[in-house]
Each structure stands twice: as C-alpha cells, then as structure tokens.
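Schema walk-through. Below, the input block comes first and the output block second. Nothing else is stored per chain. Lengths vary across the set, and this one has 382 residues.
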Amino acid sequence: MAKQDYYKLLDLPKTATAEEIKKAYRRLAMRFHPDRNPDDPEAEHKFKECKEAYEVLTDAQKRAVYDQFGHAGLEGGRGGGAGGGGGGFSAGEAFGDIFGEMFGDIFSGGQRGGRSQVFRGADLRYELELDLEQAVFGTETEIQIPSLAECKTCKGSGAAKGSVPKTCDTCNGQGQVRVQQSIFTIQQPCPRCKGRGKIITNPCDTCFGQGRVRQEKKLPVSVPAGVDTGDRIRLNGEGEAGRNGGPAGDLYVEIRVREHAIFEREGSHLSCEVPISITTAALGGSVEVPTLDGEVVLKIPSETQSGRVFRVREKGVKPVRGGAAGDLFCRVVVETPVSLSNEQRELLRKFEVSLQEGAGAHKPREQTFLDGVRKFFTGETN
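--- output ---
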C-alpha cells in the first residue's frame, strides 16, 4: 500500500513549523490512540502513520531528505528509516512527552525549564457601601482590609534570620517530579517541598515558615462618578501576596448603593413621588421638586390626575462609562386632606353635591369605571 504524504496526513502545509507539527500530531494521536479505540485496527493503523509522520517531520535531517526525495529517500537509506537505527520511539514515549508538556505547565503555574513553582496571590473582594450622592458624583474614600502580605522579617523566604532554605533532595530544587501513569508521564508538584523546591529546616519566628503574614492594611479608593450597584473597581496588586516570588493578586472593590429616602435609581434615570394638594391638581399650579444638585420648579397643569408622570430632562445620572445624563421622572400623587375641622368637612360635602350636578362630567374616570361595571354584569358588548 502506497504511503500517504506526511503533510497531508497531519493536515499541514509544507511550511509548517515544529510547533504546528507537534500540535497537529497531538490532536490526531489522542483521536486514534489504541487505548481510546480498542478493537479498531483502522484507528491503530492511523495512529502508527501519524506517529511515523511526526517522527520524520520533527527531525530536521529526516525532514530535509523527505522534502527532497519523498518516501523513497527515507526508504533508500538517506537519513535513516522512520523507525530504524534507534531513531523511532514508542507510543508511550510520544504521549509521555506531550502530556508532560501539557500538564507540566498547569502544575508549575506556567514556569518551565526546571524552576521551582511560583504561585500568584489570591484575588480579594471587598464590598463598599455608598450613598446615592456619592455614587452619582464620585468620592474619595479609604478602606481597611485583611490580607496576607510578604513577611518583612524573612522577606518571604520563610527561613529564620541568618539561615537559608535548603534544596529539596526529592526534586533537586525543581519543585516538580515526573510520575509515570500507564502510558502517560506527567509532572506534578513535589510532595515533600510542595512545589517550593526548598526545604525550610529553621523557620522564621514571625511567619512560622510561611513567608507571609496576615495583616490589616488601609487603601485609598477613588470612586468615579456614575457607578452603580454591581460595578467593580480593580486595584492591581493589592490582593494577597504571592508565594515563591509570585506576583500579588488583585483587589476587587464591589459597589453597593444604599437605598435613598427620596429617589429610586434605574440605570441612568431617577424617579420620585411628588405629593400635590387637591386644589393644585384641580386648578393647576407649581411645586418645587428636589434633585441631586438643587431644586427645580415643576408646573402642574389643571385637572391633573394622581399617578401622572412628569419628566425633568438631564436631572438623572451621568453613566460612569460615558454618555448623556439620564432624566428624573416625577410621579405626582394627589394627597387627601386629613385632620379636617367641622367647617372644612361641611365645605367638602357641599362641594361634592355640586359635582353631582355635572352628571359625571367632573369625574370622567369614575364614570368610565361605573359604565364598565354595569356592562360587565349586564353582559353588554357595546
């Protein structure tokens, strides 16, 4: 059977780099490996073909011969056969290299080249409560948070003053050990030194060998104008200190805006209720309405019904991410008089009698409601 072109087999162009070849082989090898396809001769054959292609194309000398002479060049002795002369490798070795690279990066936190592991410090979260005015206009404040910081006594080494950590004799200071599991070879943190690469025989009296100490620290926070509940401010490097020289985490300050006595906020808009008297609602007039930056005069037209909403433009909130300020929506509520005197009660009764003479003209909503009730019970459709 004629051999398939190595580049087509791995679905690669002839200009593919070594890294691209490795990635393509990794993908196909995991797909066709015999352990994942038991009793499937075709998958096993495909796996062997991919392995052979990978071996040739990752060997600079063999690849040069193959590019010039094709399969015939390799079979004819130029550069050695794909599996001969000790140049081949087993499936276990190939997978061991691949999985060692894949999992080695995960366990070492991205460190390669045999160095001991470093760990980034944990991110922290702090909830900051603000008044509505502070959220709308921005503010400067100070917060105090508990955190793990680098021990100043040992400067993060964990060793007592005058002593130094010793190299771990289990991993030889690498912080990692290789473990063979079936056909896989993976890297994992050294169980003795926990990935540090060092053993502390004389721990620091301040941090007890941890290299970090818990402390309270105060931080200034600049809150931009327009923030709302759920917004977060990130303070880079203000989280917990890293280990083994790793970078510190970040601090996320999460905003929560307290309820306001007058205003409700919805995005960039504000809303409030404005009580007005019966006479103002009936005859019209004006009322002063508070805003976050002063008062405005709201004109009430005559015959205004309770629940009507008036819009005061650009008296809302200017969003923190930019854009025009929102509006203020004022919902008027007609207030019923209380604590009436006998004289006032009598005047209201006379006023009510005068309204009845209008045959419903003075109470359009009441008349509409009563008509609807009558039609409901009589079954009228028009």
